[in-house]
């Protein structure tokens, strides 16, 4: 496992949560150890690296191999207290010497994906080793070469044990990253529950859709809403954005990188939060506002007695059912208000927006007309 300088038990200030290390940091540590062994015959264990913001974590080696012409070192990914699917994965780096002038060449080993679609930070055909981890590895190769009088011309092959299987639980297949995981990280540190990886995946999803020429994309809160928009519009997989609770992340990125049309689809209760002005729809960070729903019901013609029942309803779905039984189109009203909130975040970007509300079975219970600037 990896170990932070100053003790593995270090916690994030104010949270009590233990941070972890990105796949990029682990790959850098493994590469540093393997190249050092290739030049000296000895693996540094633990191996210390310097992260982009100056931290100097040390990583214990989980495996090592030194043979004629190459060296391999491996580190176990420790994601700290973050619910990261790559936690516990074995990240390997195999380093081979290249002729002077070759530079550092990266290869995708078993369990590391290859880019197959345009729109990502790397060209099609390249290993899915992101730019910052590449820079970290180049810097550390140069440091090791400088210490031992070498040229720093090497081939670095990164692999992840069972990476192809793990990648099925990530966005990689949808983004056209095939064969395994991506080697990620901009700071080297995994901040527990920061949601940065999910938001980054949303952004890459927009990039891939735009590069593929998609003019209509859909931000969906889950798999049921994805099925709904496929049924409604026949959208291909690379036009579907796994928005989750991060409506704001979708809208802010689409504002800067517009598409012709954006459909937002999700559960009625979640989208009622967007309608009320919340951009983070997670239950821990925003709640269904029954007073807001009661006011919308009044706008839709509900009697005061019905509005009072809506305000006292146990759940958003119960409020919807009360209004449906009385012929008040609360679902449509929520969808329309959510669309208007989305347009407000888009700030005049050339994007037409529509919103679809569904119930847990995927039945459409509300929809807005499409509207744009």
From TrEMBL:
* Record NCBIfam families: cbiD, PRK00075.1-1
Pathway involvement? Cofactor biosynthesis; adenosylcobalamin biosynthesis; cob(II)yrinate a,c-diamide from sirohydrochlorin (anaerobic route): step 6/10
Known catalysed reaction(s)?
Co-precorrin-5B + S-adenosyl-L-methionine = Co-precorrin-6A + S-adenosyl-L-homocysteine
Q: Which superkingdom does the taxonomy of this entry point to? A: Bacteria
Q: Which gene encodes it?
A: cbiD
The name this protein carries in UniProt is Cobalt-precorrin-5B C(1)-methyltransferase
Its source organism is Streptomyces violascens
Family annotation (InterPro entries): CbiD (IPR002748), CbiD_sf (IPR036074)
What's the EC number here? 2.1.1.195
Q: Which family does it belong to?
A: Belongs to the CbiD family.
Q: Which UniProt keywords apply?
A: Cobalamin biosynthesis, Methyltransferase, S-adenosyl-L-methionine, Transferase
């Amino acid at each position: 496992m990896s170990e932070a300088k100053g003790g593995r038990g270090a916690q994030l200030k104010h949270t009590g949560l233990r941070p972890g290390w990105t796949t990029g940091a682990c790959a850098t540590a493994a590469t540093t150890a393997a190249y050092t062994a290739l030049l000296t015959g000895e693996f540094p264990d633990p191996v210390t690296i310097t992260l982009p913001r100056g931290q100097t974590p040390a990583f214990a080696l989980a495996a090592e191999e030194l043979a004629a012409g190459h060296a391999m070192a491996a580190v176990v990914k420790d994601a700290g207290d973050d619910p990261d699917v790559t936690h516990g994965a074995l990240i390997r780096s195999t380093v081979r010497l290249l002729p002077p002038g070759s530079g550092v060449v990266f290869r995708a080993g078993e369990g590391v994906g290859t880019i197959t679609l345009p729109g990502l930070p790397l060209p099609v055909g390249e290993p899915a080793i992101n730019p910052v981890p590449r820079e970290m590895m180049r810097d550390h190769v140069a440091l090791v070469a400088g210490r031992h009088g070498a040229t720093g011309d090497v081939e670095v092959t990164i692999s992840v044990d069972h990476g192809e299987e793990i990648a099925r639980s990530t966005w990689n297949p949808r983004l056209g990253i095939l064969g395994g995981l991506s080697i990620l990280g901009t700071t080297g540190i995994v901040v527990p529950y920061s949601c940065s990886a999910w938001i980054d995946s949303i952004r890459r999803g927009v990039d891939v859709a735009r590069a593929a020429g998609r003019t209509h994309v859909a931000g969906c809160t889950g798999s049921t809403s994805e099925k709904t928009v496929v049924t409604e519009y026949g959208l291909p997989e690379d036009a579907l954005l796994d928005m989750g609770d991060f409506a704001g992340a979708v809208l802010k990125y689409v504002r800067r990188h517009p598409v012709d049309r954006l459909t937002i689809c999700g559960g009625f209760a979640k989208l009622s939060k967007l309608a009320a002005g919340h951009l983070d729809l997670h239950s821990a960070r925003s709640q269904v506002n029954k007073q807001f729903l009661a006011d919308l019901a009044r706008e839709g013609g509900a009697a005061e007695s019905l509005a009072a029942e809506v305000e006292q309803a146990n759940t958003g779905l119960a409020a919807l059912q009360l209004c449906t039984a009385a012929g008040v189109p609360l679902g449509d009203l929520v969808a329309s208000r959510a669309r208007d909130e989305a347009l407000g975040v888009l700030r005049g970007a050339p994007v037409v927006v529509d919103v679809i509300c569904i119930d847990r079975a995927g039945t459409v219970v509300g929809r807005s007309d499409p509207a744009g600037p």
